[in-house]
Structures are given as structure tokens and as C-alpha cells.
Amino acid sequence: MLKAPFFDPAKTYAENWQEGPFNDFADGVTLTADEEPRFTFLGQELSYPLGIPAGPLLNGSFVKAALDKGFNVPVHKTVRSRVRESNEWPNVLAADIPADLTLEMAQNPIIVRNEYKEPLSITNSFGNPSFEPSVWQKDLRECVAHAKKGQLVMCSFEGTKWDGLTSEEYVRDWADGMQLLKDAGVKVVEANFSCPNEGAAQLLCFDVPKVKVVAEAIKNKIGDTPLVIKIAYFGEAELRELVKEVGGIVDGFSAINTIPAPVVNPDGSQALPGAHRVKSGICGHAVKWAGVDMVRRLKSLREEFNLSYGIIGCGGVTVPQDFKEYRDAGADVVMTATGAMWNGYLAKEIKEAYPNA
Ligand SMILES: Cc1cc2nc3c(=O)[nH]c(=O)nc-3n(C[C@H](O)[C@H](O)[C@H](O)COP(=O)(O)O)c2cc1C
User: Fold this and answer.
1) Which end of the chain, N or C, is less packed with Cβ atoms under 10 Å?
2) pLDDT higher than 80, residue 197
């Protein structure tokens, strides 16, 4: 049975930011203590390779709650170098998908509604809102200090386009933003190259030459701080090209982000308000096949090209067996967003089921 979520879809982004987290993440129970690290990931020691990807952890209160509940690698939701408002409410709705969301199915409308049930899939649409850097940098410093031995706080960043921006300024925005994360004490940074809610045709991760330019600029700026890039689902040839071109520049890949699809109300009308929100990213159970498939291919390409990048696997981890599936496929770290939102004790359940990960 589904529990009540730590992010409340009935409330706006601002209300969740101010009042959250809720339910399991607000029960005051701390499950973690300093633990002897048994794993390393990109040079950082971890006591267990499990986290929450960029998204549901809106600010420091959410990240600290995730750390306390044993999600050892929480990623702060994507931030920007400047203020950006959230997309209008609703931002999260349940998606009616009984099995896997294939890429063909994602061409056709998916019915979404305010009725959450298992197997749980949802759509989310925020548009990567952000406060100014001083707000999230303060949060990040506190979160880094809150983390216990064997835990790692990450943060995701996305470059912003504005009127009159040159291509050089856009690249600089990415590099300077990543430096701001590093300045706040974040030891592993993530670049969100795959936000589907800015228009799927423009996903940065599919533009390999651009990814290379931006990744190189970031690495030139932040030196040996590890850089993970968050990517969408890729076809065979496209992923091979990406890994060939940037697998030796970046330090890790996080896959996958959501799969975009048109989302409609049960009566067929557009579900989310706004011309740019006809399509919205789908996550949860229905996309697990795609995340596991990407992890498997990232692992075999790493061997083929003799590279050493880290692999974060996410998408559809809602029960402990899903964690195992990702580990068996080759994920160095496994993350869960939708699953954790509706079960704040999922980390505990996974650790009990697989003490050795
Ligand atoms: C509420 C919510 C907000 C999200 N926001 C972001 C984000 O800011 N940046 C990002 O890279 N991915 C974001 N995502 C995508 C997740 O990081 C993840 O890639 C995706 O949800 C698949 O994992 P899941 O099936 O466990 O939810 C978000 C997901 C959810 C559920």
C-alpha cells in the first residue's frame, strides 16, 4: 500500500518549499549514524550506494531528512545562477501506465490524474525553478555539515538562457554555476543536461558537440572536482557516440531522467496549464526498463572504451528488488525519486533486503 508522500502534490512548489518535507520525512526519526565506509564512488567514501536523484529534494530541509533516513547520496534539486519561477501548479500527477512505458507509447497521450496507486508512475513538471545562489549555497553548506561519515551530498545545476545571451556566455554560466556548488562544499557536482520540461527537442544531452564544449568548460573551471552528467534515454548508436566523445572528460553519468510524453486529463484535454507543457516527463515504475537498459550499456561501453567513469542508475526504483536489478546491471550508485517520495523508509527496506548491496 502506498504511504503519504514527503512532497505533497496537492500543494504548490512554493508551499512544499516552505512547509515540507512531510509525512515520513517529517517524523523526526533518524536512522543513520557514522558508519564505516565500504564503497567508494568518484573518490568519495560511501557506507551504502543508494541515493535520491535531483528533484524531490527541494532544499536543505529535504536533503537533511533524506540523509537521516539513510539515502546516503542525496542530490539537491537542480539550481540555476539566477532566480526562475516554478511552472504553475499542478507539478506532479499520477500517470495511468499499467506496465512499461515504451518509446512508441510515449508518442501518444498518457492519462494523468490525482489518484496514486501501485505500480507507481507519475509525471512531474517544474521547469527547474531556482532561488538566487546565496539561498541554495547556504542550504548546501548546512547539508554538507549534516552528512554523516559514509554519506555524500550532491547538487545538480543547469545553465540558463536569457535574451541576448551569446553562446560563450551560456557556456560560462554552466562553468561558473558549477564553481558555486564547489564553493559551497559540494564534493561531486551534477550537470542537468536532460531537463525535458524546457522542450524535448532541445535536450542538451542529445547535442554531443555542445555537451563536449560545456563539459570541458566546467572541468576547466572546477579542476578535479568530479562532474556527473544527467542524461536521458539514448538509442544504441547515440549513446556510443556520447561515451566516445565525453566519456573521458566527465567523471560520471547519471541515467535516466524522465521520458517525455503528451499528458492529458481522463477527458482528453491538456492536463498541465501552459503552451510549453503539452508534453511532460514520466518517471517511476514505467521507466525502469529504460534506466536499467542504459546502465547496462554504459557499463559495457566503459569496458569497450577502457574508461573509468562512475554510473548512477535511476528510474523506477520503488521496491528493494529494483535496487538489486540496477546493481546487477552495473550501477555504482542507485537512486530513487518517485519510489522514495511515497516511501521515506525505502532506504531502510533496501538495506535490510541487501545488507551487502
Ligand atoms: C518531483 C520530481 C522532480 C524532479 N526534478 C528534477 C530536477 O530538478 N533535475 C533533474 O535532473 N531531474 C529531476 N527529476 C528526475 C529524477 O531525477 C529522475 O531522473 C526521474 O524521476 C527517474 O527516477 P524515478 O523513476 O525514481 O523517479 C525529478 C523527478 C521528480 C519525481
Assistant:
1) N
2) no
